[in-house]
């Protein structure tokens, strides 16, 4: 289902289990190298995700409207299968065309998201930032920091509950560049997920 802001129903039981595993892993990392600020997108499932992680890390989170995902328009709440069939493909298939009445275009979303991520990066220069966001936000970050042209035919897979990490590297000549340290890391799901909480 297209879970836009109007119809997002929050995390499923499986989603809660995934987030608990993410939180356990991040808490261990936080003890070694603390995060200094935590942002989360405004949709219900992201706020629920942030609440679980925030409790595990004892780090308050900021609900950040800049981290909302794409605008889905009339597709909000409909099955993705139907939306993609009607639009002759998903958002990436025709990146300069809306995928439903009132929706973003894919390139339009990326342009907006990249601009807002640049603002967030500038706001927290020098901080260790943790973000709970949509998969599309991960793709926007890669687009921005790798300098990928809008409309590129290639993309990135992003699994639910995965971790992606970027580092701002400074070399001995005081030159700085972004390094993609990990992408779509799901090591914390190495054992099968059940909705009963077994295996934690």
Protein described:
Helix content is 36%, strand content 14%. It is of the alpha/beta class and 200 residues long. Helix 2 (44-57) links the parallel strand 1 (37-40) and strand 2. It is globular, with a radius of gyration of 17 Å.
Shape: globular
The proportion of strand residues reads: 5-15%
- As laid out across the biggest beta sheet, the strand order is 2-1-3
**What's the alpha carbon Rg, rounded to whole Å?**
17 Å
Considering DSSP H and I runs of 4 or more, what fraction of the residues is helical?
25-40%
Average pLDDT, all residues: 92
Characterize the largest beta sheet: strand count, sense, and whether it forms a barrel.
3 strands, parallel
- Give the helix/strand class: alpha/beta
> What is the distance, rounded to the nearest whole angstrom, between the alpha carbons of the first and last residues?
28 Å
Helix run count: 5
Order of helices and strands: HEHEHHEHEE
Low-pLDDT sequence parts: none
- Quantity of strands, as a count: 5
What would you say about this model in short?
This protein has 200 residues and is of the alpha/beta class.
List the helices and strands and how they pair.
Layout: H1 13-32, E1 37-40, H2 44-57, E2 62-63, H3 80-86, H4 106-123, E3 129-132, H5 135-146, E4 163-170, E5 176-185
Parallel strand pairs: 1-2, 1-3
Antiparallel strand pairs: 4-5
Helix pairs in contact: 1-2, 4-5
């Amino acid at each position: 289902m297209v879970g836009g802001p109007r119809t997002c129903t929050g995390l499923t039981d499986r989603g809660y289990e995934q987030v608990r595993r993410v939180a356990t892993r991040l808490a261990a990392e936080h003890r070694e190298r603390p995060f200094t600020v935590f942002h989360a997108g405004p949709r219900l499932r992201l706020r629920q995700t942030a609440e679980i992680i925030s409790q595990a890390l004892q780090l308050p989170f900021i609900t950040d409207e800049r981290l909302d995902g794409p605008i889905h328009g009339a597709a909000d709440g409909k099955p993705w299968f139907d939306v993609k069939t009607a639009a002759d493909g998903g958002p990436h298939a025709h990146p300069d065309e809306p995928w439903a009445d009132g929706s973003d275009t894919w390139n339009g979303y990326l342009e907006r998201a990249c601009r807002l991520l640049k603002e967030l990066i500038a706001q927290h220069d020098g901080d260790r930032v943790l973000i709970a966001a949509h998969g599309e936000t991960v793709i926007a970050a890669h687009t921005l920091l790798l300098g990928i042209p809008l409309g590129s035919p290639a993309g990135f897979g992003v699994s639910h509950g995965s971790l992606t990490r970027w580092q701002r590297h400074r070399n001995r000549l005081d030159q700085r560049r972004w390094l993609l340290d990990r992408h779509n890391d799901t090591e914390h799901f190495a054992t099968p997920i059940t909705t009963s909480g077994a295996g934690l």
